[in-house]
Known about the structure:
The protein has helices at 8-14, 38-49, 73-78, 80-98, 116-140, 197-200, 217-228, 247-259, 359-375, 403-410, 459-471, 476-481, and strands at residues 29-34, 54-57, 143-146, 149-154, 157-161, 167-177, 181-183, 194-195, 210-213, 233-237, 263-266, 268-275, 282-288, 294-300, 302-305, 309-311, 345-347, 388-390, 396-400, 414-420, 435-442, 448-455. With 511 residues, the chain is of the alpha/beta class. Helix 4 (80-98) runs parallel beside helix 7 (217-228). The chain binds flavin-adenine dinucleotide (FAD) and NADPH dihydro-nicotinamide-adenine-dinucleotide phosphate (NDP).
Amino acid sequence: MHRGPITEAAIAAAAVDPDIGGAAASYDWDLFVIGGGSGGLACAKAAAELGARVALADFVKPSPQGTKWGLGGTCVNVGCIPKKLMHTAALHGEAMKHMAPSFGWNVDPATLKLDWETLRSNVCDYIRSLNFGYSASLRSKNVKYLNVYARFQDPHTLELEDKNGTKTVVTARRVLLATGGRPTTLDIPGREHVITSDDIFFLERDPGRTLVVGASYVALECAGFLTGIGRTATVMMRSIPLRGFDADMANRAVDFMEQHGTAFVRGCVPVAITKDATDGTLRVEYENVSTKERGVLGPYDTVLAAVGRKPETAAIHLDKSGVRLHPTSGKVPTDHFERTNVPHIYAIGDIIEDGLELTPVAIHAGRALADRLYAGGKTVTEYRSVPTTVFTPLEYGCVGLSEEAATEKFGIIEVYHTNFKPLEWQLPHLDDNACYMKLIVNPMDSERIIGFHILAPNAGEITQAVAVAVRCRATKADFDATIGIHPTIAEDMTTLKVTKSSGASAEKAGC
Ligand code: FAD
Ligand code: NDP
Protein backbone atom coordinates (compact mmCIF):
# COMPACT_ATOMS: atom_id res chain seq x y z
CA MET A 1 0.00 0.00 0.00
CA HIS A 2 1.22 3.51 -0.80
CA ARG A 3 2.45 5.31 2.30
CA GLY A 4 1.92 9.01 1.46
CA PRO A 5 3.11 12.05 3.42
CA ILE A 6 2.18 12.33 7.10
CA THR A 7 0.24 15.58 7.43
CA GLU A 8 -2.07 16.89 10.19
CA ALA A 9 -5.02 16.49 7.83
CA ALA A 10 -4.05 12.93 6.92
CA ILE A 11 -3.77 12.01 10.60
CA ALA A 12 -7.19 13.48 11.37
CA ALA A 13 -8.77 11.81 8.34
CA ALA A 14 -7.32 8.44 9.36
CA ALA A 15 -9.22 8.49 12.65
CA VAL A 16 -12.64 8.83 11.00
CA ASP A 17 -12.84 5.63 9.01
CA PRO A 18 -16.32 5.34 7.53
CA ASP A 19 -18.68 2.96 9.30
CA ILE A 20 -19.73 0.91 6.31
CA GLY A 21 -21.94 -1.43 8.34
CA GLY A 22 -24.40 1.02 9.93
CA ALA A 23 -24.81 2.65 13.34
CA ALA A 24 -21.99 1.96 15.78
CA ALA A 25 -24.37 0.92 18.55
CA SER A 26 -25.47 -2.15 16.58
CA TYR A 27 -22.10 -3.86 16.94
CA ASP A 28 -21.15 -6.18 19.78
CA TRP A 29 -17.79 -4.43 20.11
CA ASP A 30 -16.28 -1.08 19.18
CA LEU A 31 -12.96 -2.77 18.57
CA PHE A 32 -12.19 -6.46 18.16
CA VAL A 33 -8.50 -7.33 18.39
CA ILE A 34 -7.33 -10.59 16.82
CA GLY A 35 -4.11 -11.64 18.55
CA GLY A 36 -2.97 -11.21 22.15
CA GLY A 37 0.71 -10.58 21.52
CA SER A 38 2.80 -7.44 21.99
CA GLY A 39 0.79 -5.29 19.57
CA GLY A 40 -2.73 -6.60 20.20
CA LEU A 41 -2.49 -6.39 23.98
CA ALA A 42 -1.10 -2.85 23.87
CA CYS A 43 -3.81 -1.58 21.54
CA ALA A 44 -6.67 -3.38 23.32
CA LYS A 45 -5.71 -2.01 26.74
CA ALA A 46 -5.14 1.52 25.48
CA ALA A 47 -8.43 1.59 23.56
CA ALA A 48 -10.40 0.26 26.53
CA GLU A 49 -8.80 2.85 28.82
CA LEU A 50 -10.06 5.48 26.40
CA GLY A 51 -13.62 4.18 26.75
CA ALA A 52 -13.98 1.83 23.78
CA ARG A 53 -15.76 -1.49 24.24
CA VAL A 54 -12.97 -3.91 23.39
CA ALA A 55 -12.65 -7.69 23.02
CA LEU A 56 -9.44 -9.57 22.29
CA ALA A 57 -9.10 -13.09 20.90
CA ASP A 58 -5.89 -14.99 21.42
CA PHE A 59 -5.42 -18.61 20.48
CA VAL A 60 -2.15 -20.52 20.17
CA LYS A 61 -2.06 -23.38 17.70
CA PRO A 62 0.50 -25.92 19.00
CA SER A 63 3.78 -26.12 17.09
CA PRO A 64 4.24 -29.21 14.86
CA GLN A 65 6.19 -30.68 17.83
CA GLY A 66 3.19 -30.05 20.10
CA THR A 67 4.54 -27.08 22.11
CA LYS A 68 1.90 -24.62 23.24
CA TRP A 69 1.75 -21.68 25.60
CA GLY A 70 -0.45 -18.97 27.08
CA LEU A 71 -1.51 -15.37 26.53
CA GLY A 72 1.11 -12.80 25.51
CA GLY A 73 2.24 -13.82 22.03
CA THR A 74 5.66 -14.59 20.65
CA CYS A 75 7.81 -12.19 22.68
CA VAL A 76 6.64 -13.34 26.08
CA ASN A 77 6.40 -17.06 25.41
CA VAL A 78 8.79 -18.07 22.66
CA GLY A 79 10.77 -14.94 21.83
CA CYS A 80 12.44 -12.03 23.59
CA ILE A 81 11.79 -13.08 27.19
CA PRO A 82 12.94 -16.72 27.29
CA LYS A 83 15.72 -15.87 24.83
CA LYS A 84 17.11 -13.05 26.98
CA LEU A 85 16.87 -15.19 30.12
CA MET A 86 18.80 -18.01 28.46
CA HIS A 87 21.32 -15.49 27.09
CA THR A 88 21.74 -14.31 30.69
CA ALA A 89 22.28 -17.89 31.87
CA ALA A 90 25.01 -18.19 29.27
CA LEU A 91 26.65 -14.89 30.28
CA HIS A 92 26.69 -15.97 33.94
CA GLY A 93 28.37 -19.24 32.99
CA GLU A 94 30.98 -17.51 30.85
CA ALA A 95 31.68 -14.98 33.59
CA MET A 96 32.09 -17.70 36.20
CA LYS A 97 34.37 -19.69 33.94
CA HIS A 98 36.49 -16.96 32.43
CA MET A 99 36.28 -13.99 34.80
CA ALA A 100 35.44 -15.01 38.35
CA PRO A 101 38.75 -16.77 39.17
CA SER A 102 40.84 -13.70 38.33
CA PHE A 103 38.63 -11.58 40.60
CA GLY A 104 39.46 -13.93 43.47
CA TRP A 105 36.45 -16.26 43.37
CA ASN A 106 37.28 -19.77 44.25
CA VAL A 107 35.41 -21.52 41.43
CA ASP A 108 36.66 -24.47 39.48
CA PRO A 109 35.69 -23.83 35.84
CA ALA A 110 36.11 -27.53 35.06
CA THR A 111 33.28 -28.54 37.39
CA LEU A 112 30.76 -25.89 36.28
CA LYS A 113 27.69 -27.45 34.71
CA LEU A 114 24.36 -25.95 33.81
CA ASP A 115 21.27 -27.94 34.75
CA TRP A 116 18.90 -27.53 31.78
CA GLU A 117 15.84 -28.65 33.71
CA THR A 118 16.34 -25.97 36.38
CA LEU A 119 16.84 -23.26 33.75
CA ARG A 120 13.90 -24.41 31.61
CA SER A 121 11.46 -24.81 34.47
CA ASN A 122 12.37 -21.47 36.08
CA VAL A 123 12.00 -19.71 32.73
CA CYS A 124 8.68 -21.45 32.07
CA ASP A 125 7.38 -20.60 35.56
CA TYR A 126 8.22 -16.96 34.92
CA ILE A 127 6.45 -17.08 31.54
CA ARG A 128 3.37 -18.57 33.19
CA SER A 129 3.37 -15.70 35.69
CA LEU A 130 3.43 -13.27 32.77
CA ASN A 131 0.56 -15.14 31.06
CA PHE A 132 -1.46 -14.78 34.24
CA GLY A 133 -0.49 -11.12 34.59
CA TYR A 134 -1.69 -10.34 31.05
CA SER A 135 -5.12 -11.88 31.55
CA ALA A 136 -5.43 -10.05 34.90
CA SER A 137 -4.47 -6.74 33.31
CA LEU A 138 -7.00 -7.22 30.48
CA ARG A 139 -9.67 -7.86 33.12
CA SER A 140 -8.68 -4.81 35.12
CA LYS A 141 -8.74 -2.60 32.00
CA ASN A 142 -12.16 -3.95 31.02
CA VAL A 143 -11.02 -5.79 27.89
CA LYS A 144 -12.98 -9.00 27.26
CA TYR A 145 -10.40 -11.76 26.73
CA LEU A 146 -11.52 -14.72 24.65
CA ASN A 147 -9.31 -17.79 24.28
CA VAL A 148 -10.64 -18.48 20.77
CA TYR A 149 -9.41 -18.59 17.18
CA ALA A 150 -11.01 -15.78 15.13
CA ARG A 151 -11.84 -15.85 11.42
CA PHE A 152 -13.77 -13.42 9.25
CA GLN A 153 -17.29 -14.13 8.03
CA ASP A 154 -17.66 -10.66 6.53
CA PRO A 155 -15.87 -7.31 7.07
CA HIS A 156 -17.63 -6.69 10.41
CA THR A 157 -18.40 -10.26 11.51
CA LEU A 158 -16.05 -12.81 13.08
CA GLU A 159 -16.50 -16.47 13.82
CA LEU A 160 -14.80 -17.50 17.06
CA GLU A 161 -13.83 -21.12 17.69
CA ASP A 162 -12.68 -22.40 21.07
CA LYS A 163 -10.43 -25.39 21.77
CA ASN A 164 -13.45 -27.73 21.85
CA GLY A 165 -14.62 -26.62 18.42
CA THR A 166 -17.55 -24.60 19.78
CA LYS A 167 -18.26 -21.64 17.51
CA THR A 168 -19.82 -18.26 18.24
CA VAL A 169 -20.22 -15.15 16.11
CA VAL A 170 -19.55 -11.53 17.04
CA THR A 171 -19.68 -8.22 15.21
CA ALA A 172 -17.33 -5.29 15.57
CA ARG A 173 -17.24 -1.70 14.39
CA ARG A 174 -13.45 -1.94 13.92
CA VAL A 175 -11.12 -4.92 13.72
CA LEU A 176 -7.41 -4.97 14.47
CA LEU A 177 -5.26 -7.71 12.95
CA ALA A 178 -2.34 -8.49 15.27
CA THR A 179 -1.85 -12.18 14.60
CA GLY A 180 1.96 -12.14 14.45
CA GLY A 181 4.02 -14.84 12.78
CA ARG A 182 5.25 -18.38 13.30
CA PRO A 183 8.56 -19.99 12.38
CA THR A 184 8.97 -21.72 9.04
CA THR A 185 10.74 -25.04 9.08
CA LEU A 186 12.86 -27.09 6.72
CA ASP A 187 11.12 -28.69 3.77
CA ILE A 188 13.38 -31.76 3.54
CA PRO A 189 13.11 -35.46 4.34
CA GLY A 190 13.31 -35.90 8.10
CA ARG A 191 11.69 -32.53 8.84
CA GLU A 192 9.66 -34.21 11.58
CA HIS A 193 12.84 -34.39 13.70
CA VAL A 194 13.37 -30.64 13.53
CA ILE A 195 12.39 -28.16 16.24
CA THR A 196 12.08 -24.37 15.96
CA SER A 197 12.24 -21.41 18.32
CA ASP A 198 8.63 -22.30 19.22
CA ASP A 199 10.01 -25.42 20.95
CA ILE A 200 13.54 -24.78 22.21
CA PHE A 201 12.64 -22.76 25.30
CA PHE A 202 10.07 -25.36 26.46
CA LEU A 203 12.15 -28.41 25.55
CA GLU A 204 11.77 -30.97 28.33
CA ARG A 205 14.95 -32.83 27.43
CA ASP A 206 18.38 -31.25 27.37
CA PRO A 207 19.01 -29.92 23.84
CA GLY A 208 22.53 -31.35 23.93
CA ARG A 209 24.57 -31.26 20.72
CA THR A 210 22.64 -28.92 18.45
CA LEU A 211 22.77 -28.02 14.78
CA VAL A 212 21.20 -24.61 14.20
CA VAL A 213 20.16 -23.97 10.61
CA GLY A 214 20.00 -20.28 9.57
CA ALA A 215 22.21 -17.30 10.31
CA SER A 216 19.99 -14.44 11.37
CA TYR A 217 18.77 -13.08 14.71
CA VAL A 218 17.11 -16.28 15.96
CA ALA A 219 19.82 -18.66 14.75
CA LEU A 220 22.77 -16.72 16.15
CA GLU A 221 21.09 -15.92 19.44
CA CYS A 222 20.08 -19.54 20.04
CA ALA A 223 23.47 -20.94 18.99
CA GLY A 224 25.11 -18.31 21.21
CA PHE A 225 23.25 -19.19 24.38
CA LEU A 226 23.56 -22.94 23.74
CA THR A 227 27.34 -22.57 23.48
CA GLY A 228 27.39 -20.36 26.56
CA ILE A 229 25.53 -22.91 28.66
CA GLY A 230 28.09 -25.51 27.66
CA ARG A 231 26.26 -27.34 24.88
CA THR A 232 27.88 -27.99 21.51
CA ALA A 233 26.33 -25.72 18.91
CA THR A 234 27.02 -25.67 15.17
CA VAL A 235 25.50 -23.07 12.85
CA MET A 236 24.79 -24.07 9.26
CA MET A 237 24.78 -20.85 7.27
CA ARG A 238 23.80 -20.86 3.60
CA SER A 239 25.02 -17.35 2.72
CA ILE A 240 25.88 -14.41 4.99
CA PRO A 241 25.18 -13.81 8.66
CA LEU A 242 22.55 -11.27 9.73
CA ARG A 243 21.40 -10.24 6.25
CA GLY A 244 20.38 -6.58 6.21
CA PHE A 245 22.70 -5.58 9.04
CA ASP A 246 26.08 -3.86 8.65
CA ALA A 247 28.18 -6.66 7.12
CA ASP A 248 31.38 -5.72 8.98
CA MET A 249 29.56 -5.83 12.34
CA ALA A 250 27.78 -9.09 11.51
CA ASN A 251 31.10 -10.73 10.65
CA ARG A 252 32.70 -9.45 13.85
CA ALA A 253 29.81 -10.90 15.92
CA VAL A 254 30.22 -14.25 14.17
CA ASP A 255 34.04 -14.20 14.54
CA PHE A 256 33.63 -13.72 18.31
CA MET A 257 31.18 -16.63 18.47
CA GLU A 258 33.54 -18.83 16.49
CA GLN A 259 36.47 -17.93 18.75
CA HIS A 260 34.32 -18.79 21.76
CA GLY A 261 33.21 -22.27 20.80
CA THR A 262 30.35 -22.06 18.29
CA ALA A 263 31.15 -23.97 15.09
CA PHE A 264 30.11 -22.62 11.69
CA VAL A 265 29.49 -24.60 8.51
CA ARG A 266 29.45 -22.01 5.75
CA GLY A 267 27.73 -22.02 2.38
CA CYS A 268 25.71 -25.15 3.09
CA VAL A 269 22.11 -26.24 3.49
CA PRO A 270 20.69 -29.43 4.98
CA VAL A 271 19.09 -31.82 2.50
CA ALA A 272 17.98 -34.74 4.69
CA ILE A 273 17.85 -35.69 8.35
CA THR A 274 17.88 -39.24 9.64
CA LYS A 275 17.31 -40.50 13.14
CA ASP A 276 19.35 -43.38 14.53
CA ALA A 277 16.95 -46.17 15.49
CA THR A 278 19.12 -47.23 18.44
CA ASP A 279 20.13 -44.05 20.24
CA GLY A 280 17.77 -41.50 18.67
CA THR A 281 20.59 -39.19 17.54
CA LEU A 282 20.28 -37.21 14.31
CA ARG A 283 22.53 -37.12 11.27
CA VAL A 284 22.25 -34.33 8.77
CA GLU A 285 23.10 -34.72 5.10
CA TYR A 286 24.01 -31.33 3.70
CA GLU A 287 24.93 -29.76 0.38
CA ASN A 288 27.37 -27.00 -0.41
CA VAL A 289 25.30 -24.42 -2.31
CA SER A 290 28.13 -23.54 -4.74
CA THR A 291 29.96 -26.82 -5.34
CA LYS A 292 26.91 -29.06 -4.80
CA GLU A 293 29.19 -31.39 -2.86
CA ARG A 294 27.43 -33.36 -0.18
CA GLY A 295 28.47 -34.58 3.23
CA VAL A 296 27.03 -35.82 6.50
CA LEU A 297 27.27 -34.13 9.91
CA GLY A 298 26.38 -35.47 13.32
CA PRO A 299 25.47 -37.06 15.56
CA TYR A 300 23.23 -34.33 17.00
CA ASP A 301 20.68 -34.46 19.79
CA THR A 302 18.76 -31.51 18.32
CA VAL A 303 18.33 -29.83 14.94
CA LEU A 304 16.90 -26.34 15.31
CA ALA A 305 15.56 -24.63 12.20
CA ALA A 306 15.85 -20.83 12.43
CA VAL A 307 15.13 -20.12 8.80
CA GLY A 308 12.64 -17.28 9.08
CA ARG A 309 9.03 -16.69 10.00
CA LYS A 310 5.78 -16.38 8.14
CA PRO A 311 2.82 -14.17 8.97
CA GLU A 312 -0.31 -15.73 10.43
CA THR A 313 -2.65 -14.48 7.75
CA ALA A 314 -3.48 -17.57 5.70
CA ALA A 315 -6.20 -19.15 7.85
CA ILE A 316 -8.27 -16.19 9.03
CA HIS A 317 -10.42 -15.94 5.89
CA LEU A 318 -9.20 -12.48 5.00
CA ASP A 319 -10.84 -12.88 1.58
CA LYS A 320 -14.21 -12.54 3.38
CA SER A 321 -13.05 -9.27 4.93
CA GLY A 322 -11.83 -7.73 1.68
CA VAL A 323 -8.31 -7.19 3.14
CA ARG A 324 -5.67 -7.68 0.49
CA LEU A 325 -2.38 -9.41 1.22
CA HIS A 326 1.03 -8.94 -0.33
CA PRO A 327 1.14 -11.65 -3.02
CA THR A 328 4.49 -13.15 -2.05
CA SER A 329 5.12 -12.35 1.62
CA GLY A 330 1.53 -12.95 2.76
CA LYS A 331 1.89 -9.84 4.92
CA VAL A 332 -0.70 -7.08 5.18
CA PRO A 333 0.06 -3.82 3.38
CA THR A 334 -0.84 -0.82 5.53
CA ASP A 335 -0.59 2.95 5.27
CA HIS A 336 1.11 5.25 7.81
CA PHE A 337 -1.89 4.88 10.09
CA GLU A 338 -1.92 1.06 10.22
CA ARG A 339 -4.99 1.00 7.92
CA THR A 340 -5.41 -1.89 5.53
CA ASN A 341 -7.21 -1.37 2.22
CA VAL A 342 -10.49 -1.88 4.16
CA PRO A 343 -10.98 1.38 6.07
CA HIS A 344 -12.19 -0.05 9.41
CA ILE A 345 -9.69 -2.95 9.52
CA TYR A 346 -6.20 -2.19 10.87
CA ALA A 347 -3.03 -4.23 11.16
CA ILE A 348 0.06 -3.94 13.40
CA GLY A 349 3.12 -5.88 14.45
CA ASP A 350 4.87 -8.71 12.66
CA ILE A 351 2.16 -9.20 10.03
CA ILE A 352 2.53 -5.85 8.30
CA GLU A 353 4.39 -5.42 5.04
CA ASP A 354 7.44 -3.13 5.32
CA GLY A 355 7.26 -3.14 9.10
CA LEU A 356 9.85 -4.34 11.61
CA GLU A 357 9.45 -7.57 13.51
CA LEU A 358 10.25 -6.14 16.93
CA THR A 359 8.16 -6.01 20.09
CA PRO A 360 8.53 -2.30 20.92
CA VAL A 361 7.48 -1.45 17.35
CA ALA A 362 4.27 -3.49 17.69
CA ILE A 363 3.55 -1.93 21.10
CA HIS A 364 4.15 1.61 19.88
CA ALA A 365 1.93 1.07 16.85
CA GLY A 366 -0.85 -0.43 18.99
CA ARG A 367 -0.86 2.39 21.53
CA ALA A 368 -0.61 5.13 18.92
CA LEU A 369 -3.45 3.60 16.91
CA ALA A 370 -5.75 3.46 19.94
CA ASP A 371 -4.88 7.03 20.79
CA ARG A 372 -5.64 8.26 17.27
CA LEU A 373 -8.91 6.33 17.05
CA TYR A 374 -10.31 7.13 20.49
CA ALA A 375 -8.57 10.27 21.75
CA GLY A 376 -7.77 12.36 18.67
CA GLY A 377 -4.08 11.53 19.10
CA LYS A 378 -1.58 12.68 16.51
CA THR A 379 1.26 10.25 17.07
CA VAL A 380 2.23 8.14 14.10
CA THR A 381 4.61 5.19 14.42
CA GLU A 382 7.80 5.75 12.45
CA TYR A 383 9.43 2.62 11.09
CA ARG A 384 12.87 4.18 10.58
CA SER A 385 15.82 4.70 12.94
CA VAL A 386 14.45 1.97 15.17
CA PRO A 387 17.22 0.67 17.44
CA THR A 388 17.74 -3.05 17.79
CA THR A 389 20.12 -5.48 19.41
CA VAL A 390 21.09 -8.99 18.50
CA PHE A 391 21.73 -10.83 21.75
CA THR A 392 24.71 -12.80 20.52
CA PRO A 393 27.33 -13.73 23.16
CA LEU A 394 28.95 -10.37 22.47
CA GLU A 395 25.85 -8.24 21.86
CA TYR A 396 25.48 -6.26 18.66
CA GLY A 397 23.41 -3.10 18.97
CA CYS A 398 22.66 -0.62 16.21
CA VAL A 399 20.48 2.27 15.22
CA GLY A 400 20.27 4.00 11.85
CA LEU A 401 21.98 2.92 8.67
CA SER A 402 24.59 0.25 8.00
CA GLU A 403 27.74 1.39 6.17
CA GLU A 404 26.40 -0.23 3.00
CA ALA A 405 23.01 1.49 3.22
CA ALA A 406 24.57 4.83 4.21
CA THR A 407 26.93 4.74 1.23
CA GLU A 408 24.07 3.86 -1.10
CA LYS A 409 21.92 6.69 0.26
CA PHE A 410 24.50 9.46 0.66
CA GLY A 411 27.36 8.47 -1.63
CA ILE A 412 30.09 9.87 0.61
CA ILE A 413 30.11 9.02 4.30
CA GLU A 414 32.65 9.08 7.11
CA VAL A 415 33.06 6.46 9.80
CA TYR A 416 34.62 7.12 13.23
CA HIS A 417 35.54 3.88 14.90
CA THR A 418 37.44 2.19 17.66
CA ASN A 419 38.22 -1.26 18.93
CA PHE A 420 38.33 -1.53 22.68
CA LYS A 421 38.53 -3.84 25.67
CA PRO A 422 36.23 -3.23 28.66
CA LEU A 423 37.98 -2.65 31.97
CA GLU A 424 36.15 -5.71 33.33
CA TRP A 425 38.03 -7.86 30.83
CA GLN A 426 41.49 -6.66 31.88
CA LEU A 427 42.16 -8.86 34.94
CA PRO A 428 41.07 -12.07 33.21
CA HIS A 429 43.00 -11.00 30.08
CA LEU A 430 40.02 -11.59 27.82
CA ASP A 431 40.09 -10.80 24.12
CA ASP A 432 41.99 -7.64 23.21
CA ASN A 433 40.12 -5.40 20.80
CA ALA A 434 37.15 -7.78 20.26
CA CYS A 435 34.74 -5.00 21.19
CA TYR A 436 34.13 -2.37 18.56
CA MET A 437 31.98 0.69 17.95
CA LYS A 438 31.47 3.03 15.04
CA LEU A 439 29.62 6.21 14.32
CA ILE A 440 28.65 6.72 10.69
CA VAL A 441 28.23 10.39 9.84
CA ASN A 442 27.13 12.41 6.84
CA PRO A 443 30.04 14.81 6.08
CA MET A 444 27.77 16.92 3.87
CA ASP A 445 25.34 17.59 6.74
CA SER A 446 27.42 18.80 9.70
CA GLU A 447 28.61 15.24 10.38
CA ARG A 448 25.11 14.27 11.46
CA ILE A 449 24.98 10.74 12.91
CA ILE A 450 23.30 8.43 10.43
CA GLY A 451 24.34 5.15 12.00
CA PHE A 452 25.66 3.83 15.30
CA HIS A 453 26.92 0.27 15.74
CA ILE A 454 28.44 -1.40 18.78
CA LEU A 455 29.65 -4.88 19.56
CA ALA A 456 30.11 -5.10 23.32
CA PRO A 457 28.68 -6.40 26.57
CA ASN A 458 25.35 -4.69 27.28
CA ALA A 459 25.20 -3.25 23.76
CA GLY A 460 21.40 -3.14 24.02
CA GLU A 461 21.51 -0.78 27.01
CA ILE A 462 23.96 1.53 25.27
CA THR A 463 22.18 1.53 21.92
CA GLN A 464 18.85 2.43 23.52
CA ALA A 465 20.30 5.70 24.80
CA VAL A 466 22.12 6.50 21.56
CA ALA A 467 18.81 6.04 19.70
CA VAL A 468 17.49 9.12 21.48
CA ALA A 469 20.47 11.15 20.26
CA VAL A 470 20.02 9.89 16.70
CA ARG A 471 16.33 10.75 16.86
CA CYS A 472 17.27 14.24 18.03
CA ARG A 473 19.51 14.48 14.94
CA ALA A 474 22.73 14.74 16.93
CA THR A 475 26.01 15.44 15.14
CA LYS A 476 29.52 14.18 15.77
CA ALA A 477 30.23 17.52 17.48
CA ASP A 478 27.42 16.79 19.97
CA PHE A 479 29.04 13.47 20.84
CA ASP A 480 32.45 15.19 21.17
CA ALA A 481 30.98 17.86 23.45
CA THR A 482 29.37 15.26 25.71
CA ILE A 483 31.45 14.29 28.72
CA GLY A 484 31.90 10.58 29.22
CA ILE A 485 31.29 8.42 32.26
CA HIS A 486 34.46 6.70 33.35
CA PRO A 487 35.11 3.83 33.44
CA THR A 488 32.42 2.58 31.09
CA ILE A 489 32.21 0.95 27.70
CA ALA A 490 29.94 3.67 26.36
CA GLU A 491 32.37 6.52 27.13
CA ASP A 492 34.35 5.69 24.00
CA MET A 493 31.58 7.19 21.89
CA THR A 494 32.50 10.64 23.21
CA THR A 495 36.18 10.39 22.25
CA LEU A 496 36.10 8.84 18.78
CA LYS A 497 38.95 10.26 16.70
CA VAL A 498 40.06 7.66 14.17
CA THR A 499 38.28 7.78 10.84
CA LYS A 500 38.10 4.89 8.44
CA SER A 501 39.15 7.17 5.59
CA SER A 502 42.42 7.96 7.42
CA GLY A 503 43.38 4.30 7.25
CA ALA A 504 44.79 4.56 10.79
CA SER A 505 44.39 1.59 13.10
CA ALA A 506 41.29 1.61 15.33
CA GLU A 507 42.87 -0.83 17.75
CA LYS A 508 43.79 0.29 21.26
CA ALA A 509 46.89 -0.57 23.19
CA GLY A 510 45.71 0.08 26.77
CA CYS A 511 42.94 1.33 29.06
P1 FAD B 1 2.73 -11.94 18.38
O1 FAD B 1 3.45 -11.55 19.60
O2 FAD B 1 3.28 -13.06 17.59
O3 FAD B 1 1.23 -12.29 18.83
C1 FAD B 1 0.25 -12.77 17.95
C2 FAD B 1 -0.75 -13.61 18.74
O4 FAD B 1 -1.94 -13.82 17.94
C3 FAD B 1 -0.22 -14.99 19.08
O5 FAD B 1 -0.50 -15.29 20.44
C4 FAD B 1 -1.03 -15.91 18.16
O6 FAD B 1 -1.16 -17.20 18.67
C5 FAD B 1 -2.35 -15.16 18.09
N1 FAD B 1 -3.19 -15.49 16.94
C6 FAD B 1 -2.80 -15.67 15.64
N2 FAD B 1 -3.88 -15.88 14.86
C7 FAD B 1 -4.97 -15.81 15.67
C8 FAD B 1 -6.38 -15.92 15.44
N3 FAD B 1 -6.87 -16.09 14.21
N4 FAD B 1 -7.22 -15.82 16.49
C9 FAD B 1 -6.73 -15.62 17.74
N5 FAD B 1 -5.41 -15.49 18.01
C10 FAD B 1 -4.55 -15.58 16.99
N6 FAD B 1 11.72 -8.65 19.39
C11 FAD B 1 12.38 -7.74 20.13
O7 FAD B 1 12.03 -6.56 20.08
N7 FAD B 1 13.43 -8.09 20.93
C12 FAD B 1 13.85 -9.36 21.03
O8 FAD B 1 14.81 -9.63 21.76
C13 FAD B 1 13.18 -10.35 20.27
N8 FAD B 1 13.56 -11.62 20.37
C14 FAD B 1 12.89 -12.56 19.64
C15 FAD B 1 13.32 -13.88 19.75
C16 FAD B 1 12.68 -14.86 19.03
C17 FAD B 1 13.15 -16.29 19.16
C18 FAD B 1 11.59 -14.53 18.18
C19 FAD B 1 10.88 -15.60 17.41
C20 FAD B 1 11.15 -13.22 18.07
C21 FAD B 1 11.81 -12.23 18.80
N9 FAD B 1 11.43 -10.89 18.73
C22 FAD B 1 12.09 -9.95 19.44
C23 FAD B 1 10.31 -10.46 17.87
C24 FAD B 1 9.00 -10.26 18.70
O9 FAD B 1 8.73 -11.41 19.46
C25 FAD B 1 7.85 -9.95 17.76
O10 FAD B 1 8.20 -8.85 16.95
C26 FAD B 1 6.57 -9.60 18.52
O11 FAD B 1 6.18 -10.62 19.40
C27 FAD B 1 5.43 -9.35 17.51
O12 FAD B 1 4.24 -9.03 18.18
P2 FAD B 1 2.84 -9.18 17.45
O13 FAD B 1 1.83 -8.54 18.35
O14 FAD B 1 2.91 -8.73 16.06
O15 FAD B 1 2.55 -10.74 17.37
P1 NDP C 1 15.24 -14.02 9.20
O1 NDP C 1 14.20 -14.05 8.14
O2 NDP C 1 15.81 -12.74 9.64
O3 NDP C 1 16.47 -14.96 8.76
C1 NDP C 1 16.31 -16.24 8.23
C2 NDP C 1 17.66 -16.93 8.17
O4 NDP C 1 17.48 -18.27 7.71
C3 NDP C 1 18.63 -16.28 7.19
O5 NDP C 1 19.93 -16.43 7.69
C4 NDP C 1 18.44 -17.12 5.92
O6 NDP C 1 19.57 -17.14 5.09
C5 NDP C 1 18.22 -18.50 6.52
N1 NDP C 1 17.43 -19.41 5.67
C6 NDP C 1 16.21 -19.19 5.16
N2 NDP C 1 15.78 -20.28 4.51
C7 NDP C 1 16.77 -21.22 4.63
C8 NDP C 1 16.90 -22.55 4.17
N3 NDP C 1 15.95 -23.14 3.49
N4 NDP C 1 18.03 -23.21 4.46
C9 NDP C 1 19.01 -22.61 5.16
N5 NDP C 1 18.94 -21.35 5.64
C10 NDP C 1 17.82 -20.66 5.36
O7 NDP C 1 14.57 -14.80 10.39
P2 NDP C 1 14.71 -14.92 11.95
O8 NDP C 1 13.78 -16.02 12.26
O9 NDP C 1 16.11 -15.04 12.44
O10 NDP C 1 14.14 -13.54 12.54
C11 NDP C 1 12.81 -13.09 12.24
C12 NDP C 1 12.60 -11.74 12.83
O11 NDP C 1 12.36 -11.86 14.24
C13 NDP C 1 13.79 -10.79 12.71
O12 NDP C 1 13.77 -10.09 11.50
C14 NDP C 1 13.62 -9.88 13.90
O13 NDP C 1 12.90 -8.74 13.54
C15 NDP C 1 12.83 -10.72 14.91
N6 NDP C 1 13.75 -11.08 16.01
C16 NDP C 1 14.29 -10.09 16.78
C17 NDP C 1 15.23 -10.38 17.75
C18 NDP C 1 15.84 -9.27 18.55
O14 NDP C 1 15.32 -8.18 18.54
N7 NDP C 1 16.94 -9.51 19.25
C19 NDP C 1 15.65 -11.76 18.00
C20 NDP C 1 15.02 -12.72 17.15
C21 NDP C 1 14.11 -12.38 16.18
P3 NDP C 1 19.78 -16.13 3.84
O15 NDP C 1 20.35 -14.86 4.42
O16 NDP C 1 20.72 -16.87 2.98
O17 NDP C 1 18.43 -15.92 3.21
